[in-house]
Amino acid sequence: MAFLHFDNRFIRELPGDPLTLNQPRQVTAALWSAVTPAPVPHPQLIASSAEVAALLGISLDDLQKPEWVAALSGNRLLTGMSPFATCYGGHQFGNWAGQLGDGRAISLGELIHNDQRWELQLKGAGVTPYSRRGDGKAVLRSSIREFLCSEAMFHLGVPTTRALSLVLTGEQIWRDMFYDGNPQQEPGAIVCRVAPSFIRFGHFQLPAMRGELDLLNKLIDFTIDRDFPHLAAEPAEQRRALWFSEICITTAKLMVEWTRVGFVHGVMNTDNMSVLGLTIDYGPYGWVDNFDLNWTPNTTDAEGLRYCFGRQPAIARWNLQRLAEALGTVMTDHAILAEGLAQFEQVFTQGMNTMLAAKLGWQQWQESDVALTERLFTLLEQAEVDMTLFFRQLAELDLNAPDPASLRSSFYRDDLYHQHQPEFQQWLSDYAQRVLSEERLPEDRAARMNQVNPVYVLRNYLAQQVIDAAEQGDYQPISELLDVLRQPYTEQAGKEAYAQKRPDWARHKPGCSMLSCSS
Ligand SMILES: Nc1ncnc2c1ncn2[C@@H]1O[C@H](COP(=O)(O)OP(=O)(O)OP(=O)(O)O)[C@@H](O)[C@H]1O
Ligand SMILES: [Mg+2]
């Protein structure tokens, strides 16, 4: 097995919890607690990501060896690993929730490979002082979803935490999937997540709320030093301002990217917001099938729609505001924080325009495009059109004879197709005119559009089919699906089944359109 170089800065440089008592409690004046992952009876590696293993300098052969499988399931520590759970708080559904923390995430350490730092974190490896009433575990269905979506997002080009491995623990755990008093036993599993940093907005919020300002200052300096090393050269008085601006900018870019691919996170609480602008915590997320800005996959949010597709950017901004308030307890020049927030607006608006122009095959965004795209969104929503299929088919539109019939297979309902056909005809004509006004060759347009409009996304029902197979003991479909998702922008021969709109049976099926936080 290759030598592993761990350099565990988080626990070396930041104050830790003096108690070792591993039971749910408030942890104050500390940012982490040393913990030991719970042993599991029969660890079995059922999927892994070759790309992430390569990032870490681990061969796939090594990963399958008993030492690594044991490490990825929490059964043993490899040399240099020093497990810990971190302390953070957060606003959940708009309300301050106090201490949350890594209730079922245990970091193993920070691995250095090719001068890059990668934290390895097990999700579902047992209780920590932050587990509150939970068991610290994760079930197979939610772990498959986390594993696949992390890697799918990466291949789509969306900033995200990664997933190295998916291990079945051999344990059965109780879950009440729909909170309806019908708990069932489900197979337990653990994903090993990988990211340069797992620091969240909530890590700063908690010490700020508690008035632990010394701790907050330490965390800010540490985060800048470790995770934003390019800011080291900046004059000390500007460093924090630039840092906050950067968080606002990367978060704005992330929102543009989620919109581009039709991803709905589902639980954008401040504890699920990465300071690096990565997508983090793949819980009750979902992918938009029929375009609908009001859609949320999360049943817990079905009434309030706080975290629905169209509201994500506004929520990101709201979350940044909460972060600014926390930082404002020690960064007393509040104008600087306001400037950062203003950057969010600017970068988001500009990013959306550029992204939409690219999706629609336009070279430049024009003021008049606002009305044209808004008309499109309304139509897609009213006529229930599949977002992913629509943009791929639009790339093939005959600009000299635009015809809604050429897009027909992206519609879910015949009646709505017929009802909206005249408006689509009009919109497509206006669109064609708009494209032709740029004098760009149609072939070039299609190729460019296809670089930003995926063919394959992790449709909710595709993930559910793989889960159903895995729960029957067949794990091969996980890797098969991941293989297709590795090249999401390229049509792959024989893989048509992965590029279909949601079948009727999946419209209201649990797991396919309705997801709870139970995981
Ligand atoms: N089964 C569980 N046992 C213990 N704590 C849990 C469990 N499920 C969730 N939590 C904790 O509840 C809080 C909110 O949960 P949330 O669903 O956002 O996170 P998560 O899915 O567990 O993990 P993460 O954000 O690390 O991906 C977090 O503090 C989390 O650690
Ligand atoms: Mg979370």
Automatic annotation (TrEMBL):
Catalytic reaction(s) noted: L-seryl-[protein] + ATP = 3-O-(5'-adenylyl)-L-seryl-[protein] + diphosphate; L-seryl-[protein] + UTP = O-(5'-uridylyl)-L-seryl-[protein] + diphosphate; L-tyrosyl-[protein] + ATP = O-(5'-adenylyl)-L-tyrosyl-[protein] + diphosphate; L-histidyl-[protein] + UTP = N(tele)-(5'-uridylyl)-L-histidyl-[protein] + diphosphate
Entry keyword annotation includes Transmembrane: no
Keyword Disulfide bond applies: no
The enzyme's E.C. designation: 2.7.7.-, 2.7.7.108
Binding site for ATP: 101, 103-104, 123, 135-136, 193, 200, 281
Keywords associated with the record: ATP-binding, Magnesium, Manganese, Metal-binding, Nucleotide-binding, Nucleotidyltransferase, Transferase
Cofactor(s) essential for the protein: Mg(2+); Mn(2+)
Catalytic residues (UniProt): 271 (proton acceptor)
Family from the record: Belongs to the SELO family.
Protein's name according to its UniProt entry: Protein nucleotidyltransferase YdiU
